[in-house]
Amino acid sequence: MADGDFTMQDEMRRAFAILSGKWKLEIMWLLHQRVHRFGELRKAIPGITQHMLTAQLRELEADGLISRTVYAEVPPRVEYEITAKARGLGPTMEALAAWWAEYGASIPPRATTRGRKPA
Q: What is the CATH number of the domain that holds 24?
């Protein structure tokens, strides 16, 4: 295979890498529902630290999956929303939700051992 030739497996590996991370899919799911401010996201995701949320949001923004809007207000207001590119993942998210509705109850829960304690 010549340089520049990619197999579907290579392409899927790239896609998985963009969406990998403990919190990215949950962030994407929340932003798929509506625009959120930083504090709203932090409250909506039990166990995530401020540092990790900031890192995951920056990576998603760098990959073009979310946009960040800063409003010139005091105190500053920052909103995050899903981009048109990421909206293309909507059917995938809906398929995952349907799969979970059907099979989620059969999967044993895992104990959360990392991140901040839920309030």
A: 1.10.10.10
